[in-house]
Specification:
This protein is mainly alpha-helical. The protein has one helix and no strands. The relative contact order is 0.03.
Length: about 130
């Protein structure tokens, strides 16, 4: 019986050793899986930070575009105001010229009438 006991003891010790080896490898694999999960979490956090930075850049660009749009709108309005003022000044100038031209025509007509009067007076006296 002593031999049977030795065999059983050897089998039990062998099974315990095999179980220890298997448990060790499982633990090692679990640690590797845990490391992979931690690295994945770090990568996710980095990606989130990159996305947030990109979103901030996009928001800044949208603000710049909005500011530029306002600047262009203001510039366009200013140009329209200046064009309207120029047109008004030109219209005033045409009005002054037309008024001045009308005054010159009246003066010319009166000078012609005066000349005719003088001519007729001078022919009567001769």
């Amino acid at each position: 019986m002593d031999n049977k006991l030795k065999i059983i003891l050897i089998v039990v010790v062998s099974l315990a050793a095999i179980n220890s080896v298997v448990a060790f490898f499982q633990k090692s694999q679990l640690k590797q899986i845990q490391k992979n999960i931690e690295l994945s979490q770090i990568n996710i956090n980095t990606a989130l930070k990159d996305i947030q930075a990109s979103q901030e850049k996009i928001e800044a660009m949208q603000k710049d575009i909005s500011d530029y749009k306002s600047y262009l709108s203001n510039t366009q309005t200013t140009v329209e105001i200046l064009n309207t003022k120029k047109d008004l000044e030109e219209a005033k100038a045409r009005g002054v010229i037309a008024s001045g031209l009308e005054n010159i025509r009246h003066r010319l007509d009166s000078l012609k009438a005066e000349r005719e009067k003088l001519i007729s007076q001078s022919t009567i006296e001769n």
